[in-house]
Amino acid sequence: MVIRSGVTYAVNSFAEDVRDGLGRSGQKELPSKYLYDDVGSALFEVITKLPEYGLTRAEERILRRHAEAIAERLASHGIVVELGSGSGRKTRGILQALAHHQPTTYCPIEISSTALESCERELDDLPQVNILGFETEYLDGLCRAVARRGLGEGVVVLFLGSSIGNFDRGPGEDFLRKIREALEPGDALLLGTDLEKPLAQLIPAYDDSLGVTAVFNSNLLARINRELGGDFHLSRFEHVALYNARERRIEMHLRSVESQTVFIEGANFRTTLERDETIWTESCHKYGRQEAPKMAERAGFECVAQWVDNEWAFAENLFIAV
Ligand SMILES: C[S@@+](CC[C@H](N)C(=O)[O-])C[C@H]1O[C@@H](n2cnc3c(N)ncnc32)[C@H](O)[C@@H]1O
Fold it and tell me: For ligand 1, atom 2, which residue shows the shortest CA distance?
């Protein structure tokens, strides 16, 4: 059964965030959460199937192999909250395993209505699983989902796909702390983190040979044109995926191939880009194996298990709130 909670995501804030990010005197920037509209969410699904993007398959392998072991440790956790569920494809096995132990309420939290709808469709047939989706931001959704807990019922939060890597390291740790604050001792967090790996493997994952990631990236400008009446010419930008070794992260940018002025009517905003100037659209931080457990410990969790994929360096970490 699927129930949908009300939409709280404010579309007006898109215009404000665009004005704020493109109006900066230094590096221009757009928040990566805006990559995921209808088109962006569909393109992300394609990216997860590309041969170069091993991350999703690695996490799928870990979850398939260890779903039972994870569920056994979470025998009293009847509420599963997934932050940024995407299509929910990866979550099926873990929900099935948890629902063997007790009836389960699954709360996907999504900013993208397309992703939320496909997640609800994907998992609707699972017996013993009620789905209660929230179309909203991560922490708002988490608090609203946790408020539904029954007496003695535990909560497990899933934050998969290394989405934590979209935060800078300090803010990522702060985010874990905010998750912890929303939880009770004994609640759990299953966190997927992509590990450091050779650049020959990493760069193509964000700059694939078919050019899907490039389209995913430039769709952000197309979205501004569609929703805010922008006049970006997409052919005047190129996709860039670079590795920032100091910060240990992939950065995605859109590089202006000529000097140009852009007007965004719905934001009542005009900006100029120099030739070769970039708009930074996403960061994907990469981690040492012990890094996420240490961050989580400082945020108030204990690491009780970690599984690592052998083919693509990726870690699934199980934390319990202390
Ligand atoms: C990188 S995708 C990962 C999807 C899925 N968890 C996976 O592992 O394949 C990130 C997802 O989080 C959603 N998202 C991004 N920022 C969000 C935010 N601030 N609040 C809620 N959802 C968000 C996006 O719409 C997208 O579906």
Answer: 86
